Amino acid sequence: MNKHRYIPSLHRLALLTAAATFPLIFMGGLVTSHGAGMSVPDWPNSYGYNMFLFPPRLWVGGILYEHTHRLMGTVVGMLSIALTFWAWQTEPRRWVRWLATGVLGAVIFQGVLGGLRVVLVELNLAVVHACLAQAFFCMAALVAVVTSRRWVEADDLSPDEQSGPAGRKLFRLAAVAVFSIYVQLVIGALMRHYGAGLAIPDLPLAYGKMLPPASEEGLRRINDARLWDAGLPRVTLAQVWLHFAHRVGALIVVSHVVPVAVRVLRRHRRAELVRPAVIMLALLAAQVTLGVLTVLYRKPADVASAHVAVGALLLVTTFVLAARAGRLYLARPRAARPAERAGFGVASAELAAA
Questions:
Q1: What's the DSSP call for residue 45?
Q2: Could you give the CA distance from residue 119 to residue 32 in angstroms, rounded to a whole number?
Q3: Residues 85-107: tens digit of each pLDDT
Q4: Nearest to 76 by CA among 33, 117, 16
Q5: How far is CA 49 from CA 46, 72, 351, in A?
Q6: What is the rounded distance in angstroms from the CA atom of residue 18 to the CA atom of residue 105?
Q7: Environment class of residue 292 by beta-carbon count within 10 Å: exposed (0-12), middle (13-18) or buried (19+)?
Q8: pTM for the predicted model, two decimal places
């Protein structure tokens, strides 16, 4: 029996689950950007109604954003249940079955976190909820990747004396890029939930200088300027420096993502790597543009939410590239190793994996 066979139905279901996660994250961004996090103050009901029976005529104002976010979360949850069930029915690889189960566990945990944020009125839970949403998106995408035909039938380039070491370096660089993007998204979540989105209202400088103020006197001056010149609310030093950290993080992300994409386009011109590399560059450009527009136009909700959503796409695209690089260039499958150690060579290893 072939332990690595492509199952189209499982792959399509995994793709659907990952695809449904993207609008869920975008809708979550809309909830935060519109300040609608507590528009529906009870959970799991909605103003006493069963969530699925809540009358559409009452979906107005912030309730629209919060309630539809809950409904979309339910859709992703149902897809995760179906994905896990079908993986255990059809997928021969045990680790893939458990990965799908992890997706289900993560979406349940996310739902409980979102509910506790409402019940306990705890802002910190909203931050954790936002950060884990990004990790969940990566998990769902990984299931889609490892159940694809491209993954199952991918070449093993790890023994190649030329491409092997270069490919392993690519994997390390991509993994670092994924980490830097995720940290940046965490800082962004902190910034949004703690009201620091416009703590520095000018670009590219910070109140006309390279660094924002670090003293109480400097803070007093900028707060006076915010009030009289721009009509913006007062901020704290913590908010100012949190915003500044997000700007520095953007530079760090650019310094990691661009070299990975360039390295792929120059040295690893395989379709499964080139496509995400090109998409990464396009998403990076869009993300920087949206970040600039968010500040210049004083944080319009739709633009700020698009900034969140594109950041999630950039994270997942980079994650997919790293996963595919690992599949191509890291150690060959476990089933092949015993045969090679026994001296049967590559051909015997392939028979052992069949």
A1: S
A2: 17
A3: 999 999 999 999 999 999 999 99
A4: 16
A5: 5, 17, 59
A6: 15
A7: middle
A8: 0.90
